[in-house]
Structures are given as C-alpha cells and as structure tokens.
Amino acid sequence: MFCPYETYSNGDSTIHNHKNSDKVSLIGNANLFSQQHHVSRNRRGQIMGLRGGFRGCCIWLTGYSGAGKSTLAFALEDYLCSKGFPAYVLDGDNVRQGLNKDLGFTYKDREENIRRISEVAKLFADGGIICITAFISPFTKDRMIARQMFNEKNLPFFECFVDTSLEICEQRDVKGLYRRARAGEIKGFTGIDSDYEIPTSPNITLKAGETTVYDCLQSLILMMVKEKVLPLSAIETVKELFIPTELIHSKMAFAQSLQSIDITQLDLQWLQVLSEGWAFPLTGFMKEKQFLQSLFFGCLIDGGITNQSIPIVLPVHTPDKERVEASNAGKDRKSLALKYDGKIVAILNDIEFFHNPKEVRCGKQFGITSKEHPYIKMIYESGDWLVGGELEVFEKVKWNDGLDHYRQTPNQLRQKFKQMKADAVFAFQLRNPIHNGHALLMRDTDRQLRERGYKKPILLLHPLGGWTKDDDVPLPVRIKQHIAVLESKMLDPDSTVLAIFPSPMMYAGPTEVQWHAKARMSAGANFYIVGRDPAGMPHPETKKDIYDATHGKKVLQMAMGLTQLEIIPFKVAAYDTTSNSMAFYDTERATDFEFISGTKMRHLARTGAQPPQGFMVPKAWQILADYYNSPNQ
Fold first, then answer.
1. CA 110 to CA 446: how far, in whole Å?
2. At what angle do helices 358-366 and 288-297 cross, to 10 degrees?
3. Does position 506 have pLDDT exceeding 70, yes or no?
C-alpha cells in the first residue's frame, strides 16, 4: 500500500513522497516502464477533427526573435482548424509563463526549455494533433534532439526555418527587446550577444521578411500535402482541369483516336463546374464510389471529409456505353472523348460505367420523385448508365453571350480578392432580381464584419448562371438588373465583385444549398449568407412548398465539411409602410409591414404598375418591367 511519508530508493536516485515536501527527485529509468495505449493511431485519426486520418506531427518554426514565428504559427493553427484538422500552437512566450516559468536563459536552461517543449509536442502529435511550435530554438543540437525524439516514435517532424534577417527583426522589434539588448539591459539575447545557429537542411525555408503571411502559410500547407500529412483538398488554391497549352496538339490527336459521346448543354455546364475547380477535390465526373458517398453521406470521404451534397455525374445511353466499352476492350487505360455541338471539348480517362439509379437518386437528393419537377424530369429522361473518370478539358467553356467576362473561375476570384486586399469575403447566392431588402441584408453583413474587426470585407455577388426553370428571370436580364443596383450605389461597387456561378439550378432545397455554399468556399469565401427557403420551389403537384423555409439555414449550420464557412442567416426583410423603405421585420409592429412576393412583383411589372417607393432601385425595376412586357412574355 502507498504511504505518503515513505521514501523509495534505488541505486541511482531517491524520491521522497511527503505531502509537505517542495522537492521531488526523479525516479531512475530502471523503475519506469512504457505503457501501451489501447487506442491505435489509426483509430485516433478516425475521431480527431472532421477530416479522417491520423495527422499527428510537429511543425517546428525556428528563427530570430521577431522573425514572424508566432504570427505564422497562429495563422497556420487558424487555417488548419477552420478546415477541420486538429492543430495547436506551443508558443515560446506562452510556455515560459507556465510549464517553463522556472527556467531562465542560460545555455542549460535554454536546452531544458527546448527539451520539455519537444516532449510535450511529441505527446500532442501522438494524440493526432498537428503541433506547431514557435521557439527561437537557436542551437542546432537541440533541434536535432527534438527531431530524434519524433523519429524514435515514427512521428513526422518538420524543421521550418523562418528566415527573416536580423536587420528586419531589429526594425520590427515589436517587444522592444532588441533595443534593450543593444543597451546591455538584456544579456544572452539571440543575435546580439548569443549565437543563432542557422539550420543547414531544414524541411522548408520561409522568407517571412520578403513574402506575405498568406504566401508563407500556403508554402507550409503544400509541404504538408507533399509529405502526406494533409490531403490534397487542404490546399487553398483549387485545381483546374485544363490541358496545358503545350500539350493541346498531342492530346487532341489522342482524343480524335477515341470513341466519343455527345453531351448535352446541361452536361457541358457541369463540365465547366468541374474544370474550373468549383467542385474541388473532384477531378472529373463521379465514379460509382464517389457517387454513393455523395448520395448517401453528402460528402466525399477519401482523404478527409469534403462536403459534396449533390452528385455530379455524366449520364449515357446503352448504345453509347456498349460502343465505348468495345473500343476499350483489352486496354489498360480506358478513355473516351466528349463532344459538344460536334466539337471535342474534353477527354475522360480511367472511365467506369455504372447503373444510373434514377428513382433512388431523386428520392435521396430531392426528397420527392415527381417527374413534374423540372430537374427530376431531366434525370428520368437521361441515359440508364453513368460514366465517371478523370477529366482533361481543352479550354475554358465560353458561351459567347456577352457575359463570359463575368464567369470568373475560383482561382481568378481568389486573385481578385487578394488584389483588393480583402480580409473577409462574404458570398450571396441568388437566382432572382435584387430588391432593396436583399441590399439591406448585404449592407448589414458588411457592418457586422467591420464591427468584428475586419478592415476590408468584400461582397461576392454571385448569381447562378447555369440552367434554370422556364419561369425564372433569364441570366442576361438579371445581370443587367444587378449592374443597375450597383450603379445606384445601393450596394458599394468598390467593395463588391459581381461574377457568375456556372452551376445549373436543381431546386433540391437543403441538399442543394450545401453545394452552393461549398462551391463559394472554393472561390475563397469564408462567410455565406443563406436566405429563406434557399433552392426551394413549390411542389409541382400539391403547389405547396416542398421544403420547410428554415431548413436550408439549419442544415448549413450543421453540415459536415462546411465548418470553415461561417453561415450568416437571412434576416427577414419587408416593406416598412411607415418609412417607405425595406427594413428588417419587427414582430411588435407587424401591421406596419407589407410582404411583396415574387408573384405580386411579377404582376406589378406585367401590368405596368409601380412597386412601393423604396422597394427596388427605379432603374433596376424598369429593367424587370421591360422584360415582363416584352413580346416573349
């Protein structure tokens, strides 16, 4: 039985267990035995974070005081956690205020400081956490010992040299330490009267004094992807599927040797979505495994969880399937060419045919199977087979309708936001004209973000530009109307980017709204405004709404793989008859508000009547009125 007053001794050391004792000596190694965890690393990787897989490792940032280690460390932690990867920073100043507050800055104390940090980081990493350390760690020997600790446990260790010159660090001198060290007030300060031993073979060198935090961060992420700590989907920049210019000629010759299938305009729209990277990490039309994951889980789960709530598939008819299969018989790599309007637009490689379960797909994706639903009708009319594979696309899809310059890819939008120095991007998805209630919500979101400390929030005004049902306002009219709203300054044109989202509309309610949100993440959005009954429509038979008006918002706030996107619920706006303007609805004076439905708006436009003053920008309203009174309407 353990006695708190007993002394236990061996030949090497003694430990005194006394409740009033201040000093406890270490037990000799002969009395210590490693205990094996019951939870394996694979099992731990399944439950740590939102991205399956064991990620435990150490990102060891080393460099002079003021080099930017802490800034990079906390930026990396924020980035990883926002994408569902467990990460934690051990920062030099923080640790010295707790675990290592008994240590000074002598050579021995510095050595012990790094030893302790190495041991703690190793435990974090063994627990499946990406442990990021931000310590000067000036001595090569100490960094080598830290690496060896990780090697012995078969855990990845990455020495990351934050290579900021001493001159730049002194110029920064945020804490005033260099000034004090030069004045002799601080002794043993690294770079002044104590050496910093520059890493001779770090895993990565980061020029934090010459490049931005964002660029350094992306370099770290690329390194972690290359070393298989993170999946490809962790990379901020999405992958486009276009054939490099220098390979176009040879690839076209190969495509012309293949059997081809003709694709529809709807298929081409989905091909555009895939090729530009909106559905990243998908690299082609779904194969059966991806299709089943999307249909039944709403996510892709290989290499970590990525939200993909709607299947992106290519239907084919039986004669085309049999013809292509016959041509590929006996080949190791099976491919086919895709044609639109008689022109080869892409190659589909490593193809796989599988059954198109139309009724099951519609039931899961839409919650109904009525063939009167316009998108469901197209599914039932499509081929009985689906073909998946890796896409190689010859060129960016263009529709030559005068709007192609608005069809910016995710990478183009990211570059645009970077040029605008955006520190937050909030996206607004719409397929209808903008009234002043919408504008009120977008302005209010801007206000909220600025109150939270963001300096340059940018609005991504992102109307859907693919297929829509016949009674929706056509894209050219909507774009013209949106431009009128911007010209009126109802929305700030200097902090708004108007672009077209190329996806078709499916009217699949809460299932589809996840796709709309996920795709905007690919473009760099970190906030997403969700409205009432997003992606909904009346039931084609009962004429009642198919989906609960609040479910889209609720589902988005719970959806797997979207945690890095902050959802901003749509406040209800209505026409305030007391102020003659659109305002947020106040239940305490409900009689002062008038709700102007889409049906009523169309009736006013068709009859030449004017909406209440303050409902919509006059020029924008006139564009709608002209459309509804055109001969085709």
1. 47
2. 40
3. yes
Question: Cβ distance 280 to 524 under 8 Å?
Answer: no
In the numeric block, the tokens 């009523």 are attached to: 600
The pLDDT of residue 633 is: 66
Can you state the percent helix, strand and coil of the chain, rounding each to 5? Answer: 40, 15, 45
> pLDDT tens digits, residue range 445-461?
999 999 888 889 999 99
In 3D space, the residue among 430, 491, 487, 436 whose CA is nearest the CA of residue 458 turns out to be 491
In which order are the strands placed within the sheet that holds 581-584? 581-584, 573-576, 593-594
Evaluate whether 343 touches 412 at the Cβ level (below 8 Å): no
pLDDT of residue 50: 54
How many beta carbons lie within 10 A of that of residue 623, not counting itself?
22
Of 41, 2, 8, nearest to 26 (Cα)? 8
Are 375 and 412 spatial neighbours (Cβ–Cβ below 8 Å)?
no
Backbone angles phi, psi at 599, to 5 degrees: -65, -45
Q: Which residues are catalytic?
A: 137
- pLDDT greater than 60 at residue 140: yes
pTM: 0.76
* Residue pointed to by tokens 């041509």: 327
Q: What angle do CA 230, 233, 234 make, to 5 degrees?
A: 50
What digits encode the pLDDT tens for the residues 301-359? 876 678 999 999 999 999 999 999 999 998 888 999 999 999 999 999 999 999 999 99
Do 427 and 490 contact (CB within 8 A), yes or no? Answer: no
Q: How far apart are CA 317 and CA 114, in angstroms?
A: 65
Provide the 3-class DSSP secondary structure of residue 163.
coil
Q: Which of 279, 393, 286, 314 is nearest to 347 (CA)?
A: 393
Residue 73 in this model has a pLDDT that exceeds 80: yes
* Residues above pLDDT 70, as percent of the chain: 91
Instruction: Round to whole Å and give the CA distance between 290 and 282.
Output: 9
293 has pLDDT over 90: yes
Bond prior to 631 in cis (omega within 30° of 0)? no
| pLDDT surpassing 60 at residue 1 | no
Any idea what the Cα angle at residue 429 is, between residues 427 and 433, rounded to 5°?
A: 125
Are the C-beta atoms of 48 and 60 separated by less than 8 Å?
A: no
pLDDT of residue 25: 38
**527 near 424, Cβ under 8 Å?**
yes
CA 595 to centroid of chain Cα atoms: 35
Reduce the DSSP state of residue 616 to 3 states and report it.
coil
Q: Are the C-beta atoms of residues 321 and 353 closer than 8 Å to each other?
A: yes
- Calculate the CA 119 to chain-centre distance: 33
Which residues are paired to 157 by β-bridges? 58
| DSSP per-residue letters across 542-575 | T-SBSS-TTHHHHHHHH-TT-TTSEEEE---EEE
Give 615's Cβ-side CA count (13 Å radius): 21
